[in-house]
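Anyone up for a design puzzle?
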């Protein structure tokens, strides 16, 4: 897409390794506005863009899910552009007005996460799990799309209003991790509202493997090729539960 189509579009830019020139730059959007949420690269090298669209004519591919009307708050979408920036591999609306984060999965699929509930026709036809973590009326979702597909492999409804402020990450087994500031359940016990917590969702989306909290102000997670997962952040707590042999056993 060579020109901006509406009030604001997304764009994807690739540059040479030495930064001396662009390989390509393409816009993506319709006659309305598009708002940025997140991006990733899938296993095929496609550029995956996620955002909110206010465009009834957003470019979609033939296998897109059939959402005819754009709500007042916009519609979440997911688009894959090939690694040359010249072909739209897939593009679809997701049937919800919010999308916060995406992550490329070890098997080449894409997992999306956000606030709200997914539309019935998006959820239909694939395994759907409801994890009632608290009595809150708010909802969040996690959904996995297989490689090259706009139809979900599975969807999960998290009834606690996750914010996914730190994004969403995965390990080599496909389990999913994120930072939470709201309640969750682990072993039937409610945890954390003020301090951020760590949650781990099973690779098939069917349940939380654990949820816990730390006396920290922010967290972000990364994994390595051995399947280990690491969280880091900042804290002002004097009671940080450090382990034996820690580099710094207490806060100065």
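Challenge accepted. My sequence:
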């Amino acid at each position: 897409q060579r020109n901006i189509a509406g009030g604001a579009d997304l764009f994807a830019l690739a540059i040479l390794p030495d930064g001396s020139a662009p390989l390509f730059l393409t816009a993506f959007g319709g006659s309305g506005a598009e708002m940025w949420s997140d991006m990733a690269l899938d296993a095929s090298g496609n550029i995956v863009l996620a955002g909110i669209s206010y465009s009834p004519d957003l470019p979609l591919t033939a296998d897109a899910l059939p959402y005819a009307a754009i709500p007042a708050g916009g519609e979440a979408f997911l688009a894959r552009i090939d690694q040359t920036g010249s072909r739209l591999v897939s593009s679809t609306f997701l049937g919800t007005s919010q999308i916060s984060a995406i992550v490329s999965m070890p098997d080449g699929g894409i997992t999306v996460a956000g606030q709200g509930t997914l539309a019935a026709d998006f959820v239909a036809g694939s395994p759907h799990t409801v994890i009632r973590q608290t009595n809150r009326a708010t909802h969040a979702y996690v959904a996995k799309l297989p490689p090259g597909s706009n139809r979900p492999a599975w969807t999960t409804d998290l009834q606690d209003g996750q914010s996914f402020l730190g994004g969403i990450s995965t390990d080599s087994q496909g389990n999913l991790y994120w930072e939470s500031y709201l309640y969750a359940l682990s072993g039937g016990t409610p945890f954390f509202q003020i301090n951020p917590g760590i949650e781990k969702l099973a690779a098939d989306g069917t349940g939380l493997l654990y949820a816990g909290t730390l006396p920290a102000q922010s967290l972000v997670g990364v994994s390595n090729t051995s399947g280990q997962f690491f969280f880091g952040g900042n804290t002002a707590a004097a009671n940080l539960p450090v382990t034996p042999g820690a580099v710094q056993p207490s806060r100065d």
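A detail worth pointing out: The chain has a mean pLDDT of 82.
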